[in-house]
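From the pipeline queue, job 12 of 40. The input is one protein chain; the requested action is below.

Action: predict structure.
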Amino acid sequence: MKMKKRASIVLLPRQVVRLLAAPIAWLCGPVTMGAALILESAWLAANLPAHAGFFHDYAELDGIAKAAVLALVFVSILFHELCHAAVGLRRGGGIGEVRLGTMACMPYCFTTIPGFSAMTRADRLAVLFGGIVGQMALAMIALALTAQGTWLYLAAETAILVALCNMLPITGLDGHGILRELRGRAPISAA
């Protein structure tokens, strides 16, 4: 079944994605991704209860700080997409573009990876997990380097929440693709 193409805007063309993703690709091996996923899971289990006041802290920010938090979250989402591209590059896929589209009237970013459906199931899973792992790693580094309650800290917490929500098995999110791969279904084209 051919999926209907959605209208989208190119945020980063192929040349820029290649330039930005190439240095990330050497970090995206299976050992480093596996270790990062284990460390992130342990960190979240140990620290998530300490962040229960997150929404209260966000509500108390002024308008400029809220805008800064949203801008930093968007940067983390772009980094998430570059991590998808980096893992795709490392796993033999082509380099596509990072695009901005809409889903249910909400904007979102996605990466096209030519040759995604021709990859092995393990490679496709690595590409799907690569964005989540990369985004959470970036957010955890920011959490470690800044004081709780600052706008940078809130941006990092928000980026972790966005990454976790992206793991939900809803069409259009990485969690849906991961579930399809784990169930042995045909891959959704990422090109």
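Job complete. Strands lie at 9-12, 98-103, 106-111.
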